[in-house]
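LacI family transcriptional regulator, Kribbella turkmenica. Tokens?
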Amino acid sequence: MNPRPTMEDVAARARVSRALVSIVYRNAPGASDETRARVLAAGDALGYRPDHRARLLGSRQRTRLIGVAFDVRYPFHGDLVEALYPAAEALGYNLTLSAVTGSRRESAAAQSLLDYRCESLILLGPTSPPAALTALADSQPTVVIARKLRASGVHVVRTDDAAGSRLAVEHLLSLGHTQIAHVDGVRAPGAAERRTAYVQTMRRAGRAPVIIPGGPTESAGTEAARRLPRNITAVAAFNDACAIGLLHTLRASGRRVPEEVSIIGYDDSTPSRLDHIQLSTIAQNAHGLAAAALDLATCVDRSPQEVVISPDLVRRKT
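Tokens:
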């Protein structure tokens, strides 16, 4: 096994001093654009990655910034951001936010946070492959919220999605429903765990699973409503946004909720609590997730951990 490349190796390849290499990787003033490009090219060729933990522990000037990448399309991400702010302030940190949108990829959002010299990164429900998240963690301490993941060097804080899905189906069964469908999250984080638990819970109850393709957005719920078989009397949706799209579309078509079709969401996001929605749902503990993530993000010398938080059933009017 070859030894890990050092800063001295990069300096020798780029034909500069070790101090200049340090300036480049700290993004500090004192190196020309041409020199920076040459040093970074040498580092890439050698496979060099800075030891960020040593740098942060030994740094006299810390930014006290935690970078957060979130997807603007998902209401629960907004709830998590809101919970992260007081948790960060209590520890003496500030947050820097970078959004993922329909036209802005996760990689761009993460790179923006690195450019701001954030001490750690918190990624909300990322969809990047594990190898990409491992590479990111090699450059900066990284915490993933709301995704079950095995990626070297990455902390994970998540809800027990299988337990949440079981709670949803068992609640619908307890109401007397026998024809229960699941609107799937397809490839969204947590979708596989929620789908599998739904199928297992239905089969244990002696009922046939019915899975309808969906997704994590209201439009996905709208489309799923159009595919819903007439004999289905209850639906466990992938998340609240999907459930709300399903709810509005069913009501617009003349089907009464919950008299004809019961619906349960997942997240307990802010929209689910609105008076005209009052969605029954599975609550993820946003404040618990935020506190655990900040604890891991601010302890840069801690080995990677997984924190799993139990969900709760919230009964409302759907």
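The chain has three domains: 7-50, 63-159+286-309, 161-283.
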